[in-house]
Write a sequence for this structure.
């Protein structure tokens, strides 16, 4: 067995597949984000369990869009994602506005919490998108009371191409499966999306609200100018 190198090869193939097959949808979502950003809009992100990692990836991180706002950064939500009603309670304080963008991350796309978040976002007039694993979601039943899955609800679906069960490798006897890919794939999608949004904004002569590392000269000054624009909608940006 050479699992390490096999995993690297599988990972590289996955990234190329995302580029080849998901780029049109990533560009379509980037157009929605760029249009909203030009109007001062916020990009809303949601994920629970390990999917929450993507919402952290875009929040107050150098090289990402400052107008990214997680709906929640509470890791405990992973324990509640299969319980009906949690989504409605969580979204009671949601501040999204019509015309803004809501991105929901869920590998299975089958649990009530992310589905309810997407449903409520749509009801409030936001453009909704999902980052999900179609190979997985098509092989499982919905746990939502509607019987629907996330991909059936949102306006746009981006496939991570992560395998069923989020495991790319197995021991020779098949008893142990490992090598998850959904986070790697999701992070690639997130930063492809950011790159496309930056291109669109620059082409429109709009300064992209990209955060700089505050650990380099001029970083704090640059960030505070952008934070000033969004601090009323995202108060936790202020530092």
């Amino acid at each position: 067995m050479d699992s390490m190198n096999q995993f690297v090869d599988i990972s590289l193939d996955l990234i190329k597949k995302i580029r080849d097959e998901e780029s049109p949808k990533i560009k379509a979502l980037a157009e929605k984000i760029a249009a909203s950003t030009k109007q001062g809009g916020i990009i809303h992100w949601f994920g629970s369990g390990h999917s929450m990692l993507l919402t952290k990836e875009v929040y107050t991180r150098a090289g990402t869009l400052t107008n990214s706002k997680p709906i929640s950064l509470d890791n405990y939500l992973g324990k509640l994602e299969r319980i009906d009603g949690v989504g409605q309670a969580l979204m009671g304080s949601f501040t999204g506005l019509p015309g803004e963008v809501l991105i929901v991350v869920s590998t299975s796309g089958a649990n009530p919490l992310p589905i309810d978040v997407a449903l409520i976002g749509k009801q409030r007039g936001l453009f909704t998108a999902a980052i999900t694993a179609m190979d997985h979601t098509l092989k499982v039943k919905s746990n939502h009371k509607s019987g629907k899955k996330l991909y059936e609800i949102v306006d746009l679906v981006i496939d991570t191409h992560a395998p069923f069960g989020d495991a790319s490798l197995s021991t020779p006897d098949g008893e142990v499966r490992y090598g998850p890919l959904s986070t790697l794939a999701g992070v690639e999608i997130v930063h492809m999306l950011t790159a496309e949004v930056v291109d669109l904004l620059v082409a429109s002569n709009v300064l992209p609200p990209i955060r700089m590392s505050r650990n380099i000269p001029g970083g704090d000054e640059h960030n505070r100018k952008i934070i000033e624009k969004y601090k009323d909608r995202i108060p936790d940006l202020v530092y």
Observations:
- Residues 3-237 form a domain with the Rossmann fold fold (CATH 3.40.50.10490).
- The mean pLDDT is 96.
- Residues 97 and 182 are 29 Å apart (CA to CA).
- The longest strand covers residues 127-132.
